[in-house]
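Please review this pair:
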Amino acid sequence: MQNTVDAGYDLIEIPALDPSLIDTEHTLATLKEFGIKAACSLGLSFDADINSEDPAVVAKGEARLMAALDVVAGIEGDYLGGVLFSALGKYSHPATAKSRANSVASLKRLAIAAQAKGITIGLEPVNRYESNLINTIDQAVEMIKDIGEPNVKVHIDIYHMNIEEQDLASPIINNAEHIGYVHIGASHRGGLGTGNVDFDELFGALAKINYKGIITFESFSSAIVHPDLSLALAIWRNLWTENKPMALNARKYMVEHIIRANNLA
């Protein structure tokens, strides 16, 4: 946590794949000690998938989402996002009208419960190998409209956009009012300033819509990340071993691009 503060960040994102493992009292005390806020994110497992036609599986997934919501409230956070709408993994079949309807219904109940706690829900479009339901920002917005609750936003992730979108700017600009959270990452999940993402295009689009929300840096290395998360995200390579230099460079890179984009907007 000290490294996070030293690197200049004011928020840390906590993975809540299993909400029962998070000690909210200890986590909140630690956050307050270091003067930092937290958001939570997760992806569902296939045995707890609200994008399923099996009522028992859907119920298990909804219960996990509600437990994650309690974690966010317990650490005095105001954001829960990620692949909340389906399992996080490669499906062997497309989503069905019934499975999608189940996801919408569960997310509507989650959003209503979140409103009472002052929490925003974020739906993160991911690439086709990690969900069969929402792969693009347009698909996320369509689902948000079906859910029909004001506290549901799009959680954009540049790594996934770089795979699925035709470009980085137009989906953001065309859906400006729905963008609520931003993940910044390189095309290979490593350090910023490498890979093939056009960050000038990205930050230019965020400046054009006057985005003032949270921007987080996300990177993974099998040498550092918990094995369960590495398996879920197919992180097979050791892209880095020292997290503090990685975080320092990422913040510097993002700030430089934000300033340049705002000057050009």
The two ends are 34 Å apart (CA to CA). Residues 51 and 99 are 5 Å apart (CA to CA).
